Amino acid sequence: MSMIEFNNVEKYYGKFHALKNINLKIDQGEVVTIIGPSGSGKSTLLRCINGLETVTSGQLLINGYDLADKKTDMNKTRKNVGMVFQHFNLYANKTVMQNITLGPQVVLKQSKAQSEEEAHKLLELVGLNEKANSFPDQLSGGQQQRIAIARSLAMKPKALLFDEPTSALDPEMIGDVLNVMKTVAEQGMTMVVVTHEMGFAQEVGDRIVFMADGSILEDHSDVAGFFKQ
Ligand code: ADP
Ligand code: ADP
Question: Which positions fall inside the ABC transporter domain (predicted)?
């Protein structure tokens, strides 16, 4: 069973045709990078996967559940699919620790102690254990993005979506964020990554999908071959 499956999906914003006949299957543990010009529908594709947008027609299955089916529990789908945004979206008035543990406590019903223990492991993973009591504005953009990744992982998602996670960062911070993403990939996470970082796409991606004007123009499992073209 695919983790994510688009069958003949169309998406309109009013009259604007944003996704055109999308067919895409992503297996558990696959890392798919999505590239393409601005406005080609990459972000819309991600937002459909985690239910921030609905598709106009066709079928979209996440973890086997059809998002258009009333019996599908969208809260479970949103819990199963994490998303990391370009602009981090951390809670400014909460510490790093509170940012990471809030979702697990409220949604996963973890105790404070358990959620904090798991948060420390995640902070270690992203290399920021010493920042547990800092507030977001005391961190660099790159550090904030690594916290945002830790926060997503704390919800124990089955898949993680990244929407241009390094585009808002100063160049010297991009490498640290990409390294964390690489570690997450190596741990077997299913990942869909919209990015301009061709090095990441080539080194970490199992597949590369090229979108233009709302369509998937190319979908390559042979990532090395794609870059030799
Ligand atoms: P990309 O991520 O590739 O830059 P997007 O998915 O953000 O592309 O946008 C694809 C197209 O859909 C763009 O032309 C954009 O203006 C349009 N679009 C995106 N979101 C909306 C929206 N909420 N309402 C209307 N048009 C939108
Ligand atoms: P697990 O790893 O235990 O399968 P899930 O969150 O996928 O964890 O599933 C927990 C339960 O919820 C299972 O019984 C599963 O069938 C059901 N479930 C999972 N996702 C959805 C969904 N989006 N809509 C409805 N039921 C779901």
Answer: 4-229
How far, in Å, from the CA of 69 to the mean position of ligand 2? Answer: 14
Structure tokens, 219 = 């979908």
Ligand number with the minimum distance to the CA of 28: 2
The Cα 163–Cα 97 span in angstroms is 23
C-alpha 17 – ligand 1 centre gap (Å): 10
Cβ neighbours of residue 123 closer than 8 Å, sequence gap 6 or more: 96, 100, 129, 131, 132, 150
Mark residue 64 as left, alpha or beta (left: phi above 0; alpha: psi -120 to 50; beta: remaining): left
Q: Which atom of ligand 2 is nearest to the CA of 74?
A: 23
Nearest ligand, measured from the Cα of 63 = 2
Interval between CA 14 and ligand 1 midpoint (Å): 11
Closest Cα to atom 13, ligand 1: which residue? 39
Report whether 199 contacts 177 (CB < 8 A).
Answer: no
Beta bridge partners of 193: 33, 162
pTM tops 0.90, yes or no: yes
Give the ipTM: 0.89
Task: Choose one of 20, 43, 44 to mutate for the ligand 1 pocket test, by most ligand atoms within 8 angstroms of C-beta.
Answer: 44
Model confidence over 88-139: pLDDT tens digits?
889 999 999 999 999 999 999 999 999 999 999 999 999 999 999 999 999 9
**Ligand 1, atom 19: nearest CA belongs to which residue?**
44
Q: Tell me the C-alpha to C-alpha distance, in Å, between residue 192 and each of 36, 112, 121, 202, 209.
A: 14, 31, 23, 14, 10
Give the number of other CB atoms < 10 A from CB of residue 17.
15
